[in-house]
Amino acid sequence: MADKKETVDRIRRFNRFYMACIRVMDRTYLDSEYSVTESRILYELYENGGCSAKYIAGKLNIDKSYLSRILKKFIEKGLIKRAVSKEDSRSFSIRLTDKGKKLIYELNERSDKQIGELLAELTNGECGEICSAMDIITSHLSRK
């Protein structure tokens, strides 16, 4: 059984390995003009059908000032639109535009292709083992 120090070391080693596999450290994500963080924000908007900046900042643990700069860039590029929230007139609901939806569809396709290439030589059994391991990790690290 691994102690906490060994577990920390192995998680950090795996993170370095996996980040290299999916090229997270590249200047841009999936050969797009966007960073991993920017792409993740777009994905949150896509997944939630729109949400508030406060929600995104909390969900992704992003500094609100940094998020604000990214959202401003997205507005300028026509990827998102803001509207007064129906639930709270003091805040804004942020949604993807058609252009933003098209971009996230493209990024999702590229991501699926990239991960598919990683799995190409694996058997269905090996893929199942990976899924089980990820489920266990998610379950254990989600407990608070």
Concise description?
The chain is mainly α and 144 residues long.
Largest sheet: 2 strands, antiparallel
Oligomer: single chain
CATH class label: Mainly Alpha
Q: Major sheet: order of its strands?
A: 1-2
What would you say the CATH architecture is? Answer: Orthogonal Bundle
- Give the number of helices: 6
Name the overall outline: globular
CATH topology: Arc Repressor Mutant, subunit A
Overall number of strands: 2
Give an overview of the whole structure:
- The structure is a single chain.
- With 144 residues, this protein is mostly helical.
- It has one domain (28-142): Winged helix-like DNA-binding domain superfamily/Winged helix DNA-binding domain (Arc Repressor Mutant, subunit A).
- The chain has 6 helices and 2 strands.
- Helix 2 (36-48) packs across helix 5 and helix 3 packs across helix 4.
- Residues 4-142 form the HTH marR-type domain.
- GO terms for molecular function: DNA binding; DNA-binding transcription factor activity.
- This is MarR family transcriptional regulator.
Descriptive keywords:
transcription regulation; transcription; globular; mainly alpha; 144 residues; two-stranded antiparallel ribbon
Could you outline the blueprint of secondary structure elements for this entry?
Layout: H1 4-21, H2 36-48, H3 53-60, H4 64-76, E1 80-84, E2 92-96, H5 98-119, H6 124-142
GO molecular function, one term: DNA binding
Domain HTH marR-type: 4-142
Keywords: DNA-binding, Transcription, Transcription regulation
